[in-house]
Amino acid sequence: MFQCFKWDIQSDDHCVLAKYPLMIRREQWNLLCGLAEGLYAETILAERELIAHPELHPCLSIPKKIRKLLVRHDRAPVESLRVMRFDFHLTDEGWRISEVNADVPGGYIEASGVTELMSEHYPECAIAGSPAASLSDSLDAAFGRDATIAMVHATVYFDDHQVMRFLGKHLEERGLRPVFVSPHQLRWRNGRAGLCRSFGGKPIDAIVRFYPSEWLPELNSVCAWDMFFRNSLTPISNPATGILIQSKRFPLVWNSLRTEMKLWRSLLPETRAVEEVGNMEEWVIKPVFGRVGEDIAISGCTLRPRMREILRSAKRTPSQWVAQRRFRALPLAADDCEVYPTVGVFVMNGNVAGAYGRIARKPLIDNEAQDIAILITPGDRM
Q1: For residues 110 and 346, what is the distance between their CA atoms, to the nearest angstrom?
Q2: Which H helix or E strand runs over 337?
């Protein structure tokens, strides 16, 4: 709690941290790294195409206020660092992915600090990397000592604030100056961001955004939230254009792109609009911009009353939902039970930077799942 700013270690009556690590042998980890970096390359190409083709944005269910911005042919914001996290599941057909977290991917604390603490008890193993260290090193190399970095997040949520405090600690260790603010506390002038008067009115060198893109239109006009999508001369990580590939309906526009998406097509289950599917036993119903496994309907996993609510909502507003063909996840033995693992591989500017692990007692990674440290071993483990 004190070293890693992991304040939410308890959820209801259970600990959110697993007391053991998830072991992955080096051969499997190298495979995941190659897949994740290949997916990142395809995703970047697809996003560039999507920015230039606003006619596809309605299919992605991008909010209207954002579509109005992106339809203009202004330039995209300057990027300082691009971060994505690809979530891999172990299935009876090998590794498969469920989604990409391309907007504001989480898991920095668990993939970095918690994993490093766990690794001290397993000296024969290696860590997969530290996303927090990689992000901080990149910002340090780009902007240098004493640079002011705005850590933009929803300051009213302590689970978001703890992530930014953890990253801020890494920045401070490298001589950078993090400032913890909400979008309301930024002011833009001639395309460059600065702090509002209550924060000294000083200019900033770069922005690290942990505020979801789809929330930005709800801000008042003083925030100039449109700058996160276009025309910012202050580098942003990540630019809010990531919403185009964060949408779970992303696969529905693939056939309209020049990018072939070969690797994505081989790893992501078949995806359709919800009105096109029949037997719910074979499909997973997801909200377009859901997070942390919220509002996902899986037959046999989701409680029946909640399953009915989700299906009714999907029928009323089908454009806000998507259907993915269900894969058969494989469990692993752990203590006196079986658990289903997910390995979230971080990729920063094209290179793997670490892994965020989660496990659940059912083939659905939601708020009941535990965070688990991922360690790399040369032995015959996973």
Answers
A1: 12
A2: strand 337-348
Return the pLDDT at 74.
75
- Each residue of 27-66: pLDDT tens digit? 999 999 999 999 999 999 999 999 999 999 999 999 999 9
What is the pairing mode between strands 22-25 and 374-377? parallel
- The range of the structural domain enclosing residue 276 comes to 270-325
Q: Is residue 205 located within the same domain as residue 139?
A: yes
In this prediction, residue 380 has a pLDDT band, given cuts at 50, 70 and 90, of: low
Residue 101, token pair as written in the block: 């977290």
In this structure, the answer to whether residues 139 and 287 fall within a common structural domain is no
Contact indicator for 70, 62 with CB cutoff of 8 Å: yes
**Which amino acid would we find at residue 232?**
S
CA distance 270 to 165: 38
CA-based nearest residue to 344, from 170, 168, 95: 95
Domain count, the chain: 2
Please determine, for residue 70, whether its predicted confidence score (pLDDT) is greater than 60. yes
Q: Cα–Cα distance between 281 and 22 in angstroms, integer?
A: 30
